[in-house]
Amino acid sequence: MKLILASQGFMTSEIAKAVEEMVGKPLEEINVAIINEAYVALAGEKDKRWLIRELSQLESYIGGNIDFINLRACTKQEITQRLEIADMMYIVGGKQLVLPQLFKETGFDEIVKEFANKKVVMGTSAGAIVLGRQIEAAEYWKEKYGITKEEIGEKTLGLTNFNIIPHYLRGERKKWDRQFYEKVLNNNPFTIYALTDEQAIMQEDNHITFVGGMPEIFD
Asked: Which of 12, 65, 91, 205 has the fewest C-beta atoms under 10 angstroms from its C-beta?
């Protein structure tokens, strides 16, 4: 299984090089299928320039075919057919709880697992979180999102035995520092890595490596 979990995608040439090595093809030949439904659930007053910047960065490195697959518009058969030409699936972030529910409703959860066993799945922000283990710590959900654990809905896919905190200490997120996460993740039973926008985690089967330096670790 080949997975890449990141905060913000192709933010550095180091991340791009790591992607190239995991896919096993030059960047200019890599075909990418983009899944980006999570952003549509963000509130209207939330500026969406981050999405334009992120996809512009991807386009600047990737030279092969770039496709967008809308899970609400395509059947499972159509999705599978369109993924056949892709070397990498790229799952964009947005509203965190949207993707687990959407993947389950459309059967895409099984498609992701099958794809990751043959090719590469890269997720950014919420698109990375959906790949990892479900964070169960009730205080985390209450203090950071203002919801109870019971309101989460469908769980994440659990393709890794860890998960990430994206955009660590960026801008308005500086209030969620190490002291905050040590408190709210106190009873969480697995490792969580806090990634800056210039970091990523590469997992191939059970082996993981870090790109952009060692992340903050909560375990």
From this structure: 205
Rounded alpha-carbon distances, angstroms, from residue 169 to 95, 164, 179 = 19, 13, 12
Given a cut of 80, whether residue 172 has pLDDT beyond it is yes
Residues with Cβ < 8 Å from 107, sequence gap 6 or more? 76
Model confidence, pTM: 0.95
C-alpha distance across the termini of the chain, in Å: 23
pLDDT in tens, 69-113: 999 999 999 999 999 999 999 999 988 889 999 999 999 999 999
What is the rounded CA–CA span in Å between residue 163 and residue 5? 9
Q: Which CATH superfamily is domain 2-218 in?
A: Class I glutamine amidotransferase (GATase) domain (3.40.50.880)
Closest CA to 5 of 146, 219, 162, 140: 162
Q: Are strands 200-204 and 207-211 parallel, antiparallel or unpaired?
A: antiparallel
Strands of the 192-194 sheet, one edge to the other: 163-165, 192-194, 216-218
